Every structure is written in C-alpha cells, then in structure tokens.
Amino acid sequence: MKIKAIFFDADHTLYEIPESAKKKAYEKFFSFLSKELKIPRENLEKTFFEVIEKVKKSKKPEKRRREYCLKKVLEKLGVEENENTNNKALEIFWEEILKGIKPKKGVLEFIQEMKKRYILGIFTDEFCRIVEKKLEKIFGNRKKYFKFLITPELTREMKPSLKFYEKILELTKLKPEEILVVGDSWERDLALAKKIGMKTALIAKERAGKPEYFAKNFEEFRKLFK
C-alpha cells in the first residue's frame, strides 16, 4: 500500500546539538544558579546529574521535565525554591542550546522534497514549547512543513510507547501501512511502529532491528526512498 504520511522523531534525527553547545549551556546554567542561590557549583552539578540519571528512567512526562529535576535538586540540597531564578536558569540553558543546534546532513533538502508528496509530522519525547523552538531554528515556521506535532503533552507517556503511534493514527485517519516512521533509534522510535504495521526507516551510524529502510544520513535515505 502506498505511503501517505511520514512522521519523524526530532532530537538526534532531524537535528543535533554539538557537545560544545551542550557544554556551554550547562556552564552558564550552573554558574548562574550557583551565584544566585549561593551554592557551591560542584555540589549543584553533581546533584543535578544524579537526579537526571534517576528520573530519565521514568515514563511519566511530568517527572522528565527539567523544571521538575531542578526542583528536586534544590530539595536535596535543602535550598528554598525560587521560581523566577529557576525559570531564568532554564532560559539561559535553552538559549545556548538553540544557538548551537544544527540540521542533520541532507535533512533540509529531504524535507523540502517530501512536503510536496506526503503529509509530514513530528513525534517526539521533547516537550512542546522547546521542540517548537528547535524546529523553528532549523526550519522556520514548522507548520509550513509539518502538519502534526505529537509530544508527551498529548501521549502522557514518554517513548517507547504505543500511544505515540495510536495518536498518529487518530490524527491522520490513515492505516498503519500508509505511514512511514523515521528515527535514529530502533528501540525508542521504530520497534513498536513496526509491530503495529507501520513502515520504518532508521537513520543512524549503524543498522539495528529490522527497518524497511536504513541509511546513515538523509542524503543516502533520499536516494533509497526514491
């Protein structure tokens, strides 16, 4: 059956954030908090990553937000929470991330071509406000390219979860075999999609699972997909 819609994972699939940008973002984030809250930076940093490591195992979106993590960090350190300070720290962090974000090789040309032929959408673990900013940085107005945006606010679960694919079917009114799902991780993005009959494409350095398509970048995928 002919493919009518393509849904893309966002982070690490459509774009990447260089380690240098992440390092700078955390540097400014921790420096600001340390100064404002008068906490030794090493204590703050150590506790923050301990909390991140613990909560990233949760499938509950509310526990995966950085706002939640920062709140837990301050609780562990016995510091009174200041919402304005927390919000400013996170603004500083995301500002640096957005400065450094870069499209994956060949992705802009691929999306430009595919939007003429298919319904395009995004399904992502990133929360709506942030992924909108990331997509805007890469593509400009994301609605010009992507009709649907499926985030944890809609699914109320983090990946891997069938709820992402159920939401795709609900929104598009298409059959599973009419949908192609594209991601960088077989387990997180594609395995469940394949299980319910969707077509899958893995864009990664190494092959994993049993996707219909495998390519190392979007330039390769573009040739395969034709």
* Number of DSSP strand runs: 8
- Spatial order of strands in the largest sheet: 5-4-1-6-7-8
The number of helical elements comes to 11
Low-confidence stretches: none
Structure description:
This protein is an alpha/beta fold. It folds into two domains: 5-16 and 102-225, HAD superfamily/HAD-like (Rossmann fold), CATH 3.40.50; 19-100. The chain is built from eleven helices and eight strands. Strands 5-4-1-6-7-8 form a six-stranded parallel β-sheet, with helices on both faces. A two-stranded antiparallel ribbon has the order 2-3. The longest helix has 19 residues, at 19-37. The radius of gyration is 19 Å and the shape is elongated. The two termini are 16 Å apart. The model has no long low-confidence stretch (mean pLDDT 96).
